[in-house]
Amino acid sequence: SVSNGGDEDGGxxxxxxxxxxxxxxxxxxxxxxxxxxxxxxxxxxLTGLPPAMQKVMFKGLLPEEKTLRExxxxxxxxxxxxxxxxxxxxxxxxxxEAAQQEVKAEENKKEPLCRQKQHRKVLDKGKPDDxxxxxxxxxxxxxxxxxxxxxxxxxxxxxxxxxxEQDQLWIGTKERxxxxxxxxxxxVVSEPIEGHEDYxxxxxxxxxxxxxxxxxxxxxxxxVDAIKDTVLGKWQYF
Length: 238
What we know:
This is UBFD1 protein. By secondary structure, this protein is α+β, with helices and mostly antiparallel strands. It is 21% helix and 32% strand.
């Protein structure tokens, strides 16, 4: 049912298609009464992309069981193909990398953040005397005063000031105050502190990787959601 040559194919009507895959273009003449599944086989012969890994688009996803005539494919129609060959997939994600990712995921599942060594050395100092009181099971708006009395990862005191009118988060220590645009913070993560679940440890991601996390310990639980929503801009979606 396939011809790349003349216009005759046993008297059956052919249609000229442009098949586009991965920046490559293929001019194909194909029988109008062939099905989407047969077209996938043709695409396989052109690209090496197995039919099961093809997503073929013509005015939406191409139905495999219908003929090109039924879905009104006409001369010059563009057929878009999305998919990666098995070799491409293997090149991107080698078994070694996959194994490393699985091991890391397992480790992260097993060990809560607050038991990890880097966090233990701060948490073992105990709850700061001047930390703000927590209210368990309640979500509150951010207070108008700075959140204070917390520790950073070096065990120094830190306070968080949310300057909403300037769209900034100010992270203040005894030595200095960093003024960060909310939009520059990529993510906010938090986890309850074991044995003190009414307080959280929280990290602000200031760069592209986890190495850029700025950790804050003993954040009162009632403010955790409000902090995330404020910094990540969730309010914009309502």
